[in-house]
């Protein structure tokens, strides 16, 4: 019975033991399931967000459920600069291993594990044991940690960091825990690698965006039109391209680009484009004309290089608007041409004028001795008239060449315009004259006779351009011209008086317009115009330090604009002069190196009653003057002579 009881007790105890053991076994049996659930949860956390900081936090919480610890840290290696950063830490504090702390990889425990990527389980019996085997972990020991696991974080066969799980208990962990830790480490390693990759890509994207932004700024702010030409259209135009041509990018992509080129230049540009695409070497810059949306003709200079665009041949083009430059160049060339022609015309006219003087003088002398009934009288009269026409011609040529002989006086241009236009209006009733004259117009220093002639030439041209009548508009204005404006005309910047003469006549084409100031250029039939009108105008205006401009289109009238430098001086009133022939009895010393001039002048003066002494040079004049000082009342001297010039001689005579 006793035995039975004992047995029973024993069996009861056993049962008790079994019963006691039961929940533990149950727990152990449930453990893999629980582990798996936590593993799954970690996996879920990791894939739920790319924000790695959040991942660390939840990861630590779940890991705690599997492997209790008093400190966890995730240290990441940066191979670029050979450092390690404490990317996450929680639990007991270790100096120099706080969140965000960076330490050198070299000679660290991390480096040791990286070199031999195996998990470490460190659970020293004594401080000395740790110190001798794992001295790097002494700070951990000092912080109170006794059991330490260090698991390499491996992604694509590379150690990217270390996971530390550490406990203050001695011998807290088993090999099983280490294996478990390895499993979660491999999960977090994958998450970290992904996050790093993502960050890297984001950085690259941002860098790309920043560089794209820079290029965009470069291209869009360019003062040149920049675009790609491919498939016969303009692609990828910058703002300036759209602005220059007046079309949007979408419109440009749909219109063949030859449509934007001036018809005369089309084949040339198309040919070059084709050759360039074909790989032929061509000069990279050349100029041509484009037509913009509002039908304006613009000169552009293109700089093209062949490139690949979307993997196919194309050209990259830089287009610069050089319309203004072209205009200035043309004006400059025109001015130069006129100067050359002027020198030539002036030289001829000067010599020719001397010949005419000889003919005129001798003719006049013969006629003085002749009664009008003489049989040669009429013929001589004819000769005189022809000489007069010749003299007119040379006078015009001379005034073209040097603006003639000037007598500058401060003048109110409005007054001259009013006077000349009234005169002209009376003669040509079929033309209506409109005036828009500026009040308080600045004075100009001009030779009034010459300016009248300029205006009359312009009126006559306008009248001839309006065979069936029309209107003539005269305008004056004070203007201030800057350096850029006057440069092509070789004039000085400053205050100018602008006079425009506009007609509603037939106008002229570009080709005519370019030549109108040339002497003897005329489009009028033989005998109607000599082509000297505008040449004279040109000469006179440049002789006044001014310049002239013309704007005209065929069929749309013409505007001639004259700019004369303004003067500070007060306007002088005109004096009347008598037109009577004056005779005298005084003695004159006549000095000129030209034989013909001196002879004829002497004869004419003598015929008018004067007594004349002659000299052929400045020197001779001084000699004659010395001998006849008392008799001589007047000296007439040519200014330009070989040897001693007129000016010099006069100076000495005065003394
Ligand atoms: N207002 C105008 N409208 C249209 N064409 C003009 C005008 N003024 C000048 N022209 C053109 O310029 C050319 C030269 O003019 P310019 O005055 O020099 O000579 P011209 O008038 O032909 O002859 P001239 O003036 O010597 O009698 C003219 O033949 C004409 O073709
Ligand atoms: Mg004319």
Walk me through the structure.
- This protein is an alpha+beta fold.
- The protein has 5 domains: 29-199, 2-Layer Sandwich (Beta-Lactamase), CATH 3.30.450; 225-321, PAS domain (Beta-Lactamase, 2-Layer Sandwich), CATH 3.30.450.20; 327-402; 409-565, Heat Shock Protein 90 (2-Layer Sandwich); 587-654, Response regulator (Rossmann fold, 3-Layer(aba) Sandwich).
- Helices cover 47% and strands 22% of the residues.
- The protein has helices at residues 2-48, 52-66, 109-115, 127-133, 138-142, 175-220, 239-245, 249-254, 263-277, 323-368, 377-402, 413-427, 448-465, 483-486, 510-513, 533-543, 595-607, 618-627, 646-654; strands at residues 71-78, 83-91, 102-104, 120-122, 147-155, 158-167, 225-230, 233-235, 285-291, 297-309, 312-321, 409-411, 431-436, 444-446, 470-481, 494-503, 547-552, 558-565, 587-591, 611-615, 634-637.
- It has a 6-stranded antiparallel β-sheet, sandwiched between helices. It has a 5-stranded antiparallel β-sheet with strand order 8-7-11-10-9.
- The radius of gyration is 53 Å and the shape is elongated.
- The protein binds adenosine-5'-triphosphate and magnesium ion.
- Adenosine-5'-triphosphate (ATP) is lined by residues 457, 461-462, 465, 503, 505-508, 512, 516, 521-524, 529-535, 558.
